[in-house]
């Protein structure tokens, strides 16, 4: 089979390429050049935990030469900036905490990669994602594709893929979905994939060097960072903030409010008054969240009728139980038990057993 393999230079995609070559497939490699913050400190070019640095690029070249496969390096910096970075910044301007990886997977990784798969005459696209795809035959003889969690629950990335369509899932393979990360490392060593004991996984967001977005936001939202008041629910002023985009729901550190028996946490934002709303940690609870931009992968429950599901509001967070009622692409998820305040802009992803059914974006 002729397969397009996405090569980031990490241990996962490199091992995928070796596995597929060992199985006798004809491979074409592709690596994307993505936008990185031009205002960031020089450290951005050398961080080992970022997938777009010089080390990962060199590793990609090495693997392609090892396997004697063609490698196409394609500059998608403009598209990445337009479809991923700009919406990320705009979301923070609006007081949200967006998750850019979900949009990136839908529009850049699987959007552009599947275009290239067809352009290069390949039958399938392979990536190093930790997820699985299964086929289910329906009574009428047709088939649909299901997105499943990875076997290694600590590395599972299916949360980020809930936006994929049936057409996209029908064209992709995830060779690592049924493997443990420890097995992948062992295979990588056996295949001679170049990495040393100091190798670090690609982590955090890839387009700035810091672990958290605050410094990135300071560089790019300078005019939107207006200092304001930190207030309790009753309006009592307890401190001052440096600009609403720099804070997230549930944040406790960095508020510069001390001397309290019970620490305060961010529970809401009031952009109209430029106020950051706080409450005692654990005091505030919510019984439901509103969702927009709902997407369903292979099936969906009946509209305007509560349907029970498990959900996650973070990639590897514990599952929560509840039910969803929706119409068109908007809905409400009711938790069985009250939960801490959820961050608008993050995604709530729905599960039925190991299947990822769909999800939507949490809104105000």
Task: List its salient traits.
Rossmann fold; SH3 type barrels; single chain; alpha/beta; globular; 17 strands; 364 residues; 6-stranded antiparallel β-barrel; 7 helices; 5-stranded parallel beta sheet
Could you provide a short overview of the structure?
The protein is α/β, with parallel strands linked by helices and 364 residues long.
What's the tally of helices?
A: 7
Question: What is the rounded Rg?
Answer: 22 Å
Largest sheet report: 6 strands, antiparallel, barrel
Give the termini separation: 47 Å
Q: Report mean pLDDT, rounded to a whole number.
A: 91
Strand arrangement within the widest β-sheet reads: 12-15-14-13-16-17
Question: How much of the sequence is in beta strands?
Answer: 25-35%
What is the CATH top level name of the domain at 2-128 and 175-191? Alpha Beta
How do the SSEs run, as a string of H and E?
EHEHEHHEEEHEHHEEEEEEEEEE
Q: How many distinct beta strands?
A: 17
Give the uncertain stretches in residue-range form: 44-49
Remind me, CATH topology of the domain at 2-128 and 175-191?
Answer: Rossmann fold
Structural class call reads: alpha/beta
CATH architecture of the domain at 2-128 and 175-191: 3-Layer(aba) Sandwich
Which superfamily, in CATH terms, is the homologous superfamily of the domain at 2-128 and 175-191?
A: HUPs
Can you tell me the overall shape? globular
Residue share in helix: 10-25%
């Amino acid at each position: 089979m002729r397969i397009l393999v996405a090569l980031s230079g990490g241990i996962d995609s490199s091992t995928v390429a070796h596995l597929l070559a060992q199985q006798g497939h004809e491979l074409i490699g592709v690596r994307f050049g993505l936008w990185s913050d031009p205002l960031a400190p020089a450290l951005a070019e050398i961080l080992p935990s970022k997938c777009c640095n010089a080390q990962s690029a060199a590793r990609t070249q090495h693997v392609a030469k090892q396997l004697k496969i063609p490698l196409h390096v394609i500059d998608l910096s403009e598209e990445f900036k337009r479809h991923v970075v700009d919406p990320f910044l705009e979301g923070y301007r609006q007081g949200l905490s967006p998750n850019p990886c979900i949009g990136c997977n839908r529009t850049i990784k699987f959007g552009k990669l599947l275009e290239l798969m067809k352009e290069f005459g390949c039958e399938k696209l392979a990536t190093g994602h930790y997820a699985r795809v299964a086929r289910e035959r329906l009574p009428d003889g047709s088939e649909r594709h299901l997105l499943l969690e990875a076997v290694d629950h600590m590395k599972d990335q299916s949360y980020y893929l809930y936006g994929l369509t049936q057409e996209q899932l029908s064209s992709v393979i995830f060779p690592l979905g049924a493997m443990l990360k420890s097995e992948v490392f062992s295979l990588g060593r056996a295949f001679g994939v170049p990495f040393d004991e100091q190798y670090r996984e690609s982590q955090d967001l890839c387009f700035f060097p810091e672990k958290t977005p605050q410094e990135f936001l300071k560089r790019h939202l300078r005019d939107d960072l207006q200092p304001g008041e930190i207030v309790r629910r009753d309006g009592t002023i307890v401190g001052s903030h440096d600009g609403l985009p720099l804070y997230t729901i549930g944040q406790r550190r960095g508020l510069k409010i001390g001397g309290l028996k019970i620490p305060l946490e961010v529970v809401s934002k009031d952009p109209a008054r430029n106020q950051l709303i706080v409450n005692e940690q654990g005091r505030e609870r919510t019984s439901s969240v509103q969702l927009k931009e709902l997407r369903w992968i292979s099936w969906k429950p009946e509209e305007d009728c509560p349907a029970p599901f498990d959900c996650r509001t973070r990639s590897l967070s514990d599952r929560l139980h509840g039910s969803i009622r929706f119409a068109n692409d908007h809905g409400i998820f009711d938790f069985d038990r009250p939960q801490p305040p959820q961050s608008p802009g993050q995604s709530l992803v729905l599960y039925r057993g190991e299947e990822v059914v769909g999800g939507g974006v949490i809104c105000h």
